[in-house]
Amino acid sequence: MLSLRGIPATEVVKELRATGMRKRAVLMAHDLMSAHDALEADRAVVVAMPVQSASDAHKAKLLAGRHPYALYLPANASSSLFAAAHRDADAVIVYSPDPSANLLATQKLLDEPVDIVITEHPDRLASMMDGI
C-alpha cells in the first residue's frame, strides 16, 4: 500500500507501470480529491479511500464507479459500516492499534469482514490470531 500524501498519483503510477506492479499495489488516498486523482491516473490500480461513515462509503462508491477500490475504515467502525464496505468495495482495510492495549476491541475487529489489517505490532496481532 502506497500513500499518496504529498505525491502526485501520476508519478506513483508511472513508477508502478515501470516496475510491473500496477495490478499488485494499492494506492492510499487521504481524501476524495486525491482519490479522484488516483482513479484518473490509472484505471487498473486499486485505490483505497478513507471513510468514517456510510455516507463517506457511498461517496467513495460513486466516485470509483467501475474502478477497483478499497475502503479504509477506522478500527472502531460500526458492524454495519464494515458490512456495507465488504459488500460494495473490492477490499476492506483497517488499522489495528496495539492488540495488547485492548484485547476485546481487537477481537471485535478481527470478527469483522476485513481483507487487509495494517498494524505497527504484527507480532502481537499474529500471537492473538494464533490463539483464536
> CATH top level?
Alpha Beta
CATH architecture: Alpha-Beta Barrel
Fraction of helical residues: 40-55%
| Number of separate strands | 6
Radius of gyration: 15 Å
Structural class by sheet pairing and helices: alpha/beta
The CATH topology: TIM Barrel
The termini sit apart by 27 Å
The total of helices stands at 6
Any overview of this molecule?
The chain has 132 residues and is α/β, with parallel strands linked by helices. The chain has a single domain, classed as TIM Barrel (Alpha-Beta Barrel). The chain is built from 6 helices and 6 strands; from the N terminus they run E-H-E-H-E-H-E-H-E-H-E-H. Strands 1-2-3-4-5-6 form a 6-stranded parallel sheet. The radius of gyration is 15 Å and the shape is globular.
Short description:
By secondary structure, the chain is α/β, with parallel strands linked by helices. The chain has helices spanning 9-19, 32-41, 54-64, 79-88, 103-111, 122-130; strands at 2-3, 26-28, 46-50, 69-73, 91-96, 116-119. The chain has a single domain (2-130), classed as Phosphatidylinositol (PI) phosphodiesterase (TIM Barrel, Alpha-Beta Barrel), CATH 3.20.20.190.
